[in-house]
Design a protein that fits this description.
The complex is a heterodimer of chains A (519) and B (169). Chain A is mostly helical and 519 residues long. Chain A has helices at residues 10-36, 44-76, 82-103, 105-112, 120-135, 163-166, 171-178, 202-211, 222-245, 253-284, 287-296, 317-332, 339-354, 364-375, 379-386, 393-408, 436-439, 445-457, 478-509; strands at residues 142-149, 153-155, 182-189, 415-417, 440-442. Chain A has a three-stranded mixed sheet. Chain A has a two-stranded antiparallel ribbon with strand order 4-5. Classes of the chains: A mainly alpha (519), B mainly alpha (169). At the A-B interface, α3, α4, β2, α6 and β3 of A face α1, α2, α3 and β1 of B.
């Protein structure tokens, strides 16, 4: 023990020593993480998280030392109640250590595991789309952290794992933590990381951020309002039905209220999931529907059963798809012709035919309430909730044929060539004579998703690959390998488009420094 | 805008508050540290806890959306109330779990209301402002509550590593 630390003995001394060692180890681990991420400018969320934990660990260390000194000083005073002083010290330091060890493990675990290489292609586009949304909300900065996990998921603010604890520390610490950006975790199943087309599902997780956006004057989130209106209209009937269904003749009022609360809490969660599904379609288009099916169809679980896993939070797949298909059709039914449009429309038609006639275990009134709430989220409301983010239908209309055409020519559909297009009978213009702004532009990453899904669903990546014999299974065996290969192609294409987007942004920031000299 | 904290993080903060407050209250009883800002802040945290527990015990907020449109403040307050609904319910569950002896919602709510009135008195007027029964309540009831509260991490619901704020799709 160094000379500037009080030499405590006995049980308090042991607790003091162990607490300092543990906090020092935590500090060391966090410092190593900080060092490991020092050059990772692509992981701003993780860097902020590590800094926040470091600040908290330092403050805890400082507090323990301070408590040790205070105990030492108390014990030096004449007539001091030593037993009481020791007990207070042990409770306070022990309490601090227990709290730190309760609050730190989950953010620390997230910080230790940065996202994988294969999800990387989507990090930039999704972060940009989220930034478009939250920057519009004012100074509420938000960084995304992509976390390899067992399943898709989200956590609105990882920082909120630490801030409650800070209430017990200095005001300066609270000020520091309050000034940090929100750290939203977007989890994805690490076992499916290479299946890029499925990651359109991430739009659903991003939609949860939109669902919690407040209005410009701090008004309650628009989507939550929709549920509250429906709840207000249905609550009394819901309660009456619970009273009617009770076994006792005169059921306990409090018990009924408790049940109403439990049911409404569950219905709010179901509503949120259905609302996020709808918002996800507005964020990435029909690709979301195909990805959701691709993710879950093999489970053959179409309806949610009462008292089974998931009942507390999610409706079954069949109901979700029945609601989503019309929203996807809004993108595909624009009177556009061509093989890509046909592929998308046929895929939606076939999906609609295949959904089994199975329904979640809900009472009529519960279903009515959710339908009423979701019914308020028409297209205009969805656009308003996401504003100014979202995937405009016109963008798909503009891009889909270009994507398809490039896929037909084995070209990654990452950019749209503008100035180099020329009539067959004329020479291409010289690059020196064309403004770079008109030269080419990246294709929207969502158009890449939708075009590639159309290409896949039309069976094109498999054509001519296998020999067509189906000895082992009544499908083309090539589909399994081609799925992985095609996803790698999609990933590379999105990366190319993203690179183009970034370079274009850099060029714009340089304000024309790279432009060719005009004549 | 801060979002909902995880149950574990929330519990960890209250645990830490409890482990300090037990001795803060003893200090107050013995006439020491009456003016300590940190103690006042911890009393405020406990006050916040018992207030949230009472709100969380309410069946469901009323129907203020029926309020006249000009009562914008009422609607706004209602909005904030709804935004905190789950947190309040979590706090209510937390208090119920700690208060094992309360069997019904109204018993827990009643205890929280009583604790709130005593703590408010303590916060504003210090230990001497409390009457005898209130002082006994702090010494006996509140201290045993805080003793159990500081061990919340030993229950399944609030064990470390549990990540209930990550919502799986």
């Amino acid at each position: 023990m160094s000379s500037d630390q009080p030499a405590l003995t006995g049980l308090s001394g042991r607790i003091f020593e162990r607490a300092l060692i543990r906090l020092h180890r935590l500090h060391q681990d966090l410092t190593e993480l900080r060092y490991a991420y020092r050059d990772r400018d692509d992981l701003p969320g993780l860097k902020v998280l590590v800094e926040a934990m470091l600040v908290l660990a330092s403050e805890a260390e400082r507090t323990v030392v301070q408590r040790g000194r205070a105990l030492w000083e108390d014990l030096q005073q004449e007539g001091a109640n030593a037993a009481e002083a020791h007990e207070a010290f042990r409770d306070r330091v022990g309490g601090l250590m227990n709290s730190i060890e309760s609050a730190i493990p989950s953010p620390f675990q997230v910080a230790q595991q940065p996202h994988g290489r294969e999800i990387e292609a989507l990090v930039g586009p999704l972060a940009r789309e989220t930034a478009r949304m939250v920057n519009h909300d004012g100074p509420s900065a938000r960084e995304l952290i992509f976390e390899p996990a067992a399943d898709y998921g989200f956590q609105l603010s990882l920082l909120d794992e630490l801030t409650p604890l800070a209430k017990n520390f200095s005001a300066a610490l609270r000020t520091v933590l309050d000034g940090l950006p929100q750290l939203t975790v977007i989890a994805y199943p690490s076992q499916l990381e290479a299946e890029t087309l499925l990651h359109a599902v991430l739009a659903h997780e991003i939609a949860h951020i939109a669902l919690h956006r407040r209005g410009p004057l701090g008004e309650p989130p628009r989507a939550q309002d929709a549920f509250d209106v429906a709840r207000r209209e249905h609550r009394d009937t819901l309660r009456e039905r619970l009273v009617e269904g009770a076994e006792e003749k005169e059921p306990d009022e409090e018990e009924i209220d408790r049940q109403v609360r439990t049911v409404l809490r569950r219905l709010r969660k179901w509503f949120e999931e259905l609302a996020c599904d709808a918002l996800a379609v507005r964020l990435v288009g029909p690709a979301y529907v195909f990805a959701l099916v691709g993710l879950d169809v093999a489970s053959n679980r179409w309806k949610q059963l009462g008292a089974m896993a998931g009942e507390e939070s999610h409706p079954g797949l069949a109901w979700r798809l029945r609601r989503l298909i019309p929203l996807a059709r809004a993108y595909t039914d624009q009177g556009m012709d061509g093989p890509a449009w046909t592929a998308l429309r046929e895929a939606l038609d076939s999906l609609q035919r295949d959904i089994p006639d199975e329904h979640d275990e809900l009472t009529d009134i519960e279903r009515e309430l959710i339908e009423a709430a979701v019914g308020q989220l028409d297209t205009a409301a969805l656009i308003e909730i996401l504003d100014p983010a979202g995937y405009d239908i016109g963008v798909l209309a503009n891009d889909l044929d270009v994507v398809w055409d490039k896929l037909e020519h084995d070209i990654p559909p990452a950019e749209r060539i503008a100035a180099r297009n020329h009539p067959d009978d004329s020479s291409p213009p010289s690059p020196d004579t064309v403004s770079l702004e008109d030269w080419s532009e990246p294709i929207d990453w969502r158009s890449i998703f939708n075009g590639c899904w159309a290409w896949w669903l039309a069976g094109r990546p498999v054509e001519g690959v296998g020999d067509g014999t189906h000895r082992l299974a009544p499908i083309d065996p090539a589909v399994r390998d081609q799925w992985i290969a095609f996803n790698a192609f999609v990933r590379g294409t999105i990366e190319l488009g993203d690179l183009h987007e970034r370079l274009q942004s850099v060029r714009d920031r340089l304000d024309g420094l790279n432009r060719p000299e005009s004549d | 805008m801060r979002q909902r904290e995880s149950r574990v993080a929330l519990a960890a903060a209250y645990q830490l508050m409890a482990s300090h407050l037990i001795h803060d209250l003893r200090d107050l009883m013995s006439g020491r540290e009456d003016a300590d800002r940190a103690i006042r802040e911890r009393v405020e945290l406990l006050l916040d806890l018992v207030q949230a527990a009472q709100r969380g015990a309410e069946p469901v907020p009323g129907q203020p959306l029926d309020a006249p449109a000009h009562e914008a403040g009422a609607v706004r307050e209602h909005g904030d109330r709804l935004a905190n609904l789950e947190r309040d319910e979590d706090v209510f569950d937390l208090v119920s779990r700690v208060r094992r002896e309360d069997r019904t919602i109204s018993q827990t709510k009643h205890w929280a209301a009583h604790a709130e009135s005593v703590l408010a008195e303590l916060h504003d007027g210090g230990w001497k402002a409390l009457n005898k029964p209130q002082q006994e309540f702090v010494q006996m009831d509140l201290e045993s509550f805080l003793r159990r509260l500081e061990r919340l991490d030993q229950t399944d619901e609030y064990r470390p590593g549990r990540r209930d704020s990550l919502v799986r799709r």
